Amino acid sequence: MTRVGDKQFEVFITAEELQKEIASLAAHINKEYAGKEVVFIAVLNGAFMFASDLMKNISLDCRISFVKMSSYKGLRSTGTVEELIGLGLDLKGKEVILVEDIVDTGLTIDKIIGLVSEQEPASVKVCTLLYKPTAFKGSKEPDYVGFSIPDAFVVGYGLDYMELGRNLNAIYQIKS
Q1: Packing angle of the helix pair 15-32, 48-56 (nearest 10 deg)
Q2: What pLDDT score does 18 carry?
Q3: Which pLDDT belongs to residue 83?
Q4: What secondary structure, in 3-state letters, does 113-163 show?
Q5: Which tens digits make up the pLDDT trace of 18-71?
Q6: Do the Cβ atoms of 81 and 43 come closer than 8 Å?
Q7: Looking at the predicted structure, is the pLDDT value of residue 95 above 70?
Q8: What is the CATH number of domain 22-149?
Q9: How far apart are CA 9 and CA 123, in angstroms?
């Protein structure tokens, strides 16, 4: 059990389970994109730890860039997505993989796919560490999923509660 801000959380996915699944995701991507150059676009702030560990396991020629989007306030999605920091790379004709910490409603990913697609990449796929299928309302489900989880609030390994808890090396679920 750990406290983040004013809430209690319990371990949901251990650090070891995270690293094993990230290596598996990277192996799948390495195989699928063998011989191709890939542009990874990580969504800040939450995906920074996942993107870092994923990239350590990628053996392809690749680039990484970052975008920062916002759709949360406290424990809930606001239902709107606001672009905070845009893309800095030319993506025309490139293989693009969006890297997310968590896909729940899918609204953020839909917005990013729309922005990226304007640049006419060869392909756009989504790799997420966590996916909440019961909360999903988007138009494109993730292509690579580390863990499908229930619609519960989680923190740690880049995910936050009120900007706290990102530094935890495991995923914690709020204690009900």
Answers
A1: 60
A2: 98
A3: 58
A4: HHHHHCCCCCEEEEEEEEECCCCCCCCCCCCEEEEECCCCCEEECCECECC
A5: 999 999 999 999 999 999 999 999 999 899 999 999 999 999 999 999 988 755
A6: no
A7: yes
A8: 3.40.50.2020
A9: 38
C-alpha 27, offset from chain centre: 17
Q: Is 90 among the residues known to form the active site?
A: no
Torsion region of 122: left, alpha or beta (phi above 0 gives left; psi -120 to 50 gives alpha):
alpha
Residue of 11, 45, 49 lying closest to 129 (CA atoms):
49
Each residue's pLDDT tens digit, 104-123: 999 889 988 988 998 999 99
Q: What is the mean pLDDT of residues 142-168?
A: 95
pLDDT-based confidence at residue 79 (cuts at 50, 70, 90) = low
| Structure token digits, residue 98 | 């969006």
Is 49 within 8 Å of 43 (Cβ atoms)? Answer: no
**Cβ contacts of 22 within 8 Å, gap of 6 or more:** 50, 53, 54, 57, 129, 146
- Catalytic-labelled residue, pool 53, 61, 101, 104: 104
In residues, how long is the chain? 176
DSSP class of 5: T
